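User: Is it possible to get a 3D structure for a protein together with its bound compound? The compound here is adenosine monophosphate. I've pasted both below.
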Amino acid sequence: MTEKIIGIDLGTTNSEVAIINNGQATMISSDGSVILPSYVGLDSEGKLLVGEAARNQYTVYPERTVKSIKRSMGGSDKIFMAGQEYAPQEISAIILKTLKKIAENHLGEKISKAVITVPAYFSDGQRQATREAGEIAGLEVVKMINEPTAAALAYEYNHQGGKRIMVYDLGGGTFDVSVVQIEEGVIEVMASHGNNHLGGDDFDQKIVDHIRRALKEEHGNIDIPPEAAARIERASEVAKLILSDNPFASIKEEFLLEKKGVPFHFSLELSRDEYEEMIDPFIDETMEAIHIALKSAGLTVSDIDEILLVGGSTRTPLVGRRLEEEFAVQPRSEIDPDLCVADGAAIQAGMIAGEEVSAVLVDITPYTFGTSALGELDDGMPYPFMFVPIIKKNTPIPVRKSEVFFTPFDNQEVVEVCAYQGENNDAKQNIELGKFTIKGLSKVPAGNEIITTFELDKDGILHVSAMEKKTGLAKDISIDNAISRFDKENMETARGKIVDLFGEEDEAPQADSVNKSGNVENVKAMALVEKAERLMAQASVEDKEDLVDLIEQINDAMKAGDKNSLAEATDELSEIVFYLDS
Ligand code: AMP
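Assistant: Yes, that's possible. Here is the predicted structure of the complex:
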């Protein structure tokens, strides 16, 4: 039997270890978690603490605890922990040895080799220090790979052909962006840029500042002892995590502080909008870094085929939104952003060990689910059925996401909530899965907040609920088989196939005057022509002329079997039809 090689993501905030098991990259857990916080400490009796225990100690005894050691790797600084002096390699070695032991306990065998990931910007000195840390921990570092390379391996292992990928990695304390080129199976980092002191911790700090401001406004200048400060920090991070999936987070801390000897509770509601405003400047900074990386790779936004999201902070919806706005592609995050670098390290380790390796498997939804709301079309016209995606396609399941909507009318006592599956901005073009109404809403001015929640479980059942935030009045429905339904495209292809099989007999009578081949394009075009003819009455003189011309062009193209001309005319006609129909 060949010796197992483990893959390690040695991160600034968190570290993970993974192996290949039955061809699949598999995370190894310890104490129920696959994430080991990169904290090392000594308790009051001199006992070594690593991971969660050390992290918990940090808030109370920072002098006995070390965090973010990765930032000191390759430097000559001495690290002090409980009054003792350590080299950065030694602290890192403690983390590596813990991961090695976790893997050995899981596998029931000794491990002596590892692949370790490092940031693309790490210098030779920093890489050497990482290698030494491995040696101190009793691990031969058979290969060190760049973190973006590992992420690309996790997503694109065995990709054929060329591809340019941007890896956007936003963790707890660091941000890196790398442009990666895949060519004939070789993955190469073309350029990298980042900020060693930007990450989720800064997001937390913004909420901490907000809470402190609120405390000051309400209670004046009061003393905040370290324990209360630690509670505020924790509550801020929790609120941040909640805001990734919900439009509001309520922060409640009982007996947080004392005023003139009397303890008091603290509570505050934070909306996602307020929070996003606080962190927007950080996201701006990451966008600037992206452009620097692109420039040094000699590329522009349109040269990027794909964006991969890495690091826990990329779960912040604003990150995905800003990237999508900039690149016009939906960033990929179906492989857990906390684990994808370790997945890639395990894949590399398995390849070196000569194991059979297959692509990372994830359970995702292939469709987008959402609801409709009053919105604006591209031309600024109001439209009541704008599709609002709530669970986007390729999101791992199970998943639960909430969004807030506002009633558009004063004293509106009823809302209808409709669930759709599809990708079209016009909800009416998507598949309607179900709907319900909530009656008896409060008689208040427009802007009453309704929280709509979509929850998709592992069995493909979609639960949709809506709640009036003010009163808690709620209603819900469950939709079975939400992901195995036929989508519209499949439906049309299938219809086309059936038409082909039936030949002339099954064709609509009006088809006699045109081409009878019955292929999908023709079927689509005929349906469009029919719709255009119905809308003719309400069209302006100019639009009418265009409609007549395009219908003629479509009929001619079908007769002549001219696919290009058919596609061109159908596209143009569908634009006018869409505009007239809305
Ligand atoms: P990493 O360094 O990649 O392990 O990322 C850790 C950072 O990700 C911490 O700042 C976490 O608070 C943050 N994080 C984890 N989950 C989420 C989430 N759902 N939404 C926003 N930030 C998150």
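The two ends are 66 Å apart (CA to CA). The pocket of adenosine monophosphate is lined by residues 11, 13-14, 171-172, 199-201, 237, 240-241, 244, 311-313, 315-316, 338 (CB under 6 Å).
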